[in-house]
Amino acid sequence: MSFGQGGPQWGSGGQDQNPYNQGQYGQNQYGRYGQGQGGQDSVDPFGNRSGSDAGTPDWAALAEASAARTRRRRWLMVGGGALATALVAGAVATAIVSSNKDSDNNASDKNSSQLPAPPDLPQNTTAPEPSFSSVAPLPPPDPKDFISDRKKDTLPLSAETLFPGKKLTMGDRVYDKGALARTGNCASAVKGALAGALENNDCEQVFRATYSNDGIAVTVAVATFENAAKAKKALQQASGSVVPLPGAGVPTFCKGGPVCRSTFNAYGRYAYFTTTGYTKAKSVTEKDTKAFQTGDDLGEFTFRQIVRRGEAQASAAASAPAQ
Fold this sequence. Notes:
Blueprint: H1 59-109, H2 143-146, H3 159-162, E1 167-170, E2 173-183, E3 190-191, H4 193-200, E4 205-213, E5 216-224, H5 228-236, E6 241-242, E7 261-267, E8 270-278, H6 289-319
Antiparallel strand pairs: 1-2, 2-4, 3-6, 4-5, 5-8, 7-8
Helix pairs in contact: 4-5
């Protein structure tokens, strides 16, 4: 059994190289006692020579043998220590390599299929799901519906609500408000065939207001009916004019000889008319843009006031709680 490479061999070939571990002194590296190599006398390890000076040890030979034994033991210890160190280092290196391989294998083997899967989402939750009504929401109320029928048109109505304030501003034009009037006798507020058109369609009442600016005055009249159909029919039959309403700083106008301009319109259950003329004895002609502008401003304002009534009532209906 060898104890490392390159070191002394212990028991090689079945023979011990230690001359003193044979168990007998009959054979060693010096040959047999009494016969040396080449027929010469061999040296006794104790210093005896065959045939002469028997019994006297060879101290030099003994010292050399002892030194050889010491060197052998030192070599054995050094070789054994080196072998042990090599074995321990090899074992440690093997363990490290094995550990690294295991770590690498573990890291490389953990592919995406071995990673922890995300938690499954719960199929059933206690949170309520949003629900939607299968019934389509009602469309917002149409403002015109409220001003097209007396039963729906329930907001307070007066000359003041139709013509509020003391002045009217339209663009860069400012009109002073004059007199206001209201009558249940619709025919008394108009002239000519317009009176018959109002009465024939059951006119309820007529509101009038006068505005003036720079020598031009306009009287606007608003007649109410039960529904939009009657107001439309009255408009189709309309002719004549509104009786001018002077007062509150506005002198008499459109009376006697001067020609005045008249307009006729209807929206919902309301019919509205204007009469425009100069406060002096002067007629309105087709090229009189200033007079036309004044009459159109008052007609536009009156239309907007009627529309606002419808919008206000539609908004109130939309915000009212369902019943």
